[in-house]
Amino acid sequence: MKIAVYPGSFDPVTNGHLDIIRRAARIFDTVIVAVFYNSSKKCAFSIDERMDMLRTATKDIDNVIIDSSDNLLVHYMENNDVKVIIKGLRMVSDFEYEFQMALANHQQNKDIETLFMMTASEYSHLSSSLVRELATYGGNLIGLVPNDVIPYVYEKLQPKK
Amino acid sequence: MKIAVYPGSFDPVTNGHLDIIRRAARIFDTVIVAVFYNSSKKCAFSIDERMDMLRTATKDIDNVIIDSSDNLLVHYMENNDVKVIIKGLRMVSDFEYEFQMALANHQQNKDIETLFMMTASEYSHLSSSLVRELATYGGNLIGLVPNDVIPYVYEKLQPKK
Amino acid sequence: MKIAVYPGSFDPVTNGHLDIIRRAARIFDTVIVAVFYNSSKKCAFSIDERMDMLRTATKDIDNVIIDSSDNLLVHYMENNDVKVIIKGLRMVSDFEYEFQMALANHQQNKDIETLFMMTASEYSHLSSSLVRELATYGGNLIGLVPNDVIPYVYEKLQPKK
Amino acid sequence: MKIAVYPGSFDPVTNGHLDIIRRAARIFDTVIVAVFYNSSKKCAFSIDERMDMLRTATKDIDNVIIDSSDNLLVHYMENNDVKVIIKGLRMVSDFEYEFQMALANHQQNKDIETLFMMTASEYSHLSSSLVRELATYGGNLIGLVPNDVIPYVYEKLQPKK
Amino acid sequence: MKIAVYPGSFDPVTNGHLDIIRRAARIFDTVIVAVFYNSSKKCAFSIDERMDMLRTATKDIDNVIIDSSDNLLVHYMENNDVKVIIKGLRMVSDFEYEFQMALANHQQNKDIETLFMMTASEYSHLSSSLVRELATYGGNLIGLVPNDVIPYVYEKLQPKK
Amino acid sequence: MKIAVYPGSFDPVTNGHLDIIRRAARIFDTVIVAVFYNSSKKCAFSIDERMDMLRTATKDIDNVIIDSSDNLLVHYMENNDVKVIIKGLRMVSDFEYEFQMALANHQQNKDIETLFMMTASEYSHLSSSLVRELATYGGNLIGLVPNDVIPYVYEKLQPKK
Fold this sequence. Notes:
6 copies of one chain form a homohexamer.
Chain A: E1 3-8, H1 15-27, E2 30-36, H2 47-57, E3 64-69, H3 73-80, E4 84-89, H4 92-108, E5 113-118, H5 128-136, H6 150-156
Parallel strand pairs in A: 1-2, 1-4, 2-3, 4-5
């Protein structure tokens, strides 16, 4: 059985993430979407909120599991006996950072491979930080995050009034 | 069964290509290495020579098939009922071209996905054209192309006097 | 009156070009779409064919003029007393080439400015050469070139049997 | 009448910014230079200081207006009924960030267009943060910020010693 | 006598840094490795620790001097009457930042030149921040920092648990 | 004695090349400017013309030698017992190509190092091909190639009537 891990902060999940999840779920038997966190990086949403939004967004995709970890990605892979990491690439700057991470992970464990998928072009400008910034100002989130997730985002990042 | 196609010119196959083939063969049940050609692009080696070098280089990998095609990649995928394309990325310039190609292929057929693997860093400077140029001048090819392939390359691109 | 020139090869015009033309025509009073050619660069379509396809594609936009020139762009601007060049940017590699061209044109004539517009993300993978390649293989052109232009392209680049 | 907004932090204005303002003011009837700020981003200079330095730097350009806002750029454009954003591009990393912003703004309001100008090559290495760093160490600011602005910068960021 | 300065944070020194130092020491008569620091940038290791790790890592290279400074790099060069800065480049994002810095330094003093060396490809994914992150999680540092430096790093960034 | 080779096509030499030569000649005891050619690459100027233009352009720099070769760069370095290659970098696309070349040359001979200098920003848009294109159309070459070289270029690439 082919399993892949799709790691990220998902702070919050966007339609760009969801597009990658959906497409990866067609290629692999199981896709584990794993919220990675560490105490030194401040996030807008709690782990539970981020996992909840992911569960809401992926509820119609059967072979997706939502998980979380504060471990090193490579250790998480080893502990769960998974060999394949899925990452989305939007732009050149993504590419370089992810390139470094893929090489670093491969250096830590030669059996672990990272497979990259291109983000669909309509989401190439989309990031969690853009979503947070728009939400803070009361911008329009339709098409940017899954519809079921919009209320979570507005509630948390209540527009300045 | 998970099948992936690794398309290219392989003019000639390099150790960078072979590294991608080997790693892809650990992830997928079958990897089809497909030499794509078209009459408008001049190559140094014939289709048969390129397939021959690939067979020599991959003879110890069980689940690899060597094929060739002068069709559009998307049509080849459809004809063989394969959904996954594997490509190696070395550098930013690769990234942009491959990004365009992946989007174009996805636009032609929504079921076809391209998965990218990062070339191992020791091969990031390696390309078929570099190999051809070095061979023409009698440069050292050890470590650049599979050892069994070196004689083919020298014979074809016989060093200047 | 604000006039801008949108120069290119348009071999053939794509929906990405048309998107830039449409958006530029909302900002400027007149947009001159100028087919630049020179004898050393071989094109698939003749000047007349390229202008014809552009006229067909832009027939519903009032303030667009189709022209052609084999002059240096800066000289064309001077001869027509126009100061603003419009260019579309899709990707980093576009950026660097266009950056050089903009600086070179500005160096030739300090009054000439190049304004860049970002290609809409759905067209970021689209280029005339991709269109030509797809057409040659009988690939699907819907959404890539204006519908009225599709017959021109197929007729010229008749798919291989 | 053609109006464009040139938004930024201008912390402080540099000769690179001034070059863009001057060139944009030749193309558009009015250029609004708008200092954008939000409470979460710490700046070295206050809004008033930044507007003051901009007024000083642009006092010989008739069709420039200095403004400020803590709103979302798109909302500012809508409130002022302006459709065109001007941005300067220096480098590839600018390009990617600005590309995302331009697409995001266009997604929020289809009528709003971003036009990019290439920073003159002599200012391609220049940024407000470089100016602040040099000033902190007593480096030479001539040619980097408008002459009239130099005293403001030194006074604020008094060299160590 | 040809002297060059190799400036950096070295927080901590990596095998990528050491590779550049070794290769620069073959080209120049003396290489000064200078730890630059300023009060506004928090580092994991103290100046003394960073210099100590550098001394340990370079103890077999005769013509290397370890120094530190909180001055502007250009002023340090002037005070020590050195004209050549050595920097390593790994990736496109390095390139752009270093390009800006090299131009800024050259603008401050026309006699000061920056020479760039390409990081060996096996270290292209390596950075001090990656080392710190791996150490914090108890990841494997062999091959990433000089063997004699590994104990310093683990002691400081003692793995969680 | 420190010697460096500055290799290139110099078809023709530009002010960007000359700037690198001048700055390298201040760092190294001798700079060999070497015109590399091979029969498969068509150039506008003959080897003799290119060397002649280089001699004219560098006649006031004492420690510069003009040479030519149709050998592999690494073999040329070995034959002349020189260890250091100097290259100018203008842009990201240069960077990637030169990065590959530097790694390839280092792979062929571990003692050979490539040192990169940043092209002065006023020449960052300048290339031999831009010069040739401008000359063909009778564009202005002042500031782009050394004044003494301009007549050679116009004579060869006689402007279209």
